[in-house]
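stuck on this fold:
=====
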Amino acid sequence: MLRYFLILLNVALLALLLVGLPEATHAQVVGYQIAKGPTTRLLILWGLIGAAGLNLLVTLLLIKNPKQRSVGWEWTAIFAALALLQYSLLRAWLNFDWLKRSLEWCQKHLS
């Protein structure tokens, strides 16, 4: 039962971070946007890091059953990987210029 609770809690947290947070920060009040784009991305990054850390602590300190512990490790890895991806995007280590160039080449040569 705890295993399903961990999965449900982590899915809800992931949805909150990746869908709810950007939506909430892009809200406008009387024509004024609550948070700018870089602030939103930083909030998502810190939320992912916090979720990974919380999963790590819960897995190490509270969960004793090996099956439930493996779920904790999986979610720790998922949040850590997403945090690393978000950090890479923030630092502009990952970009999609190659995709843009490929699509432009296809459009130029295939039409």
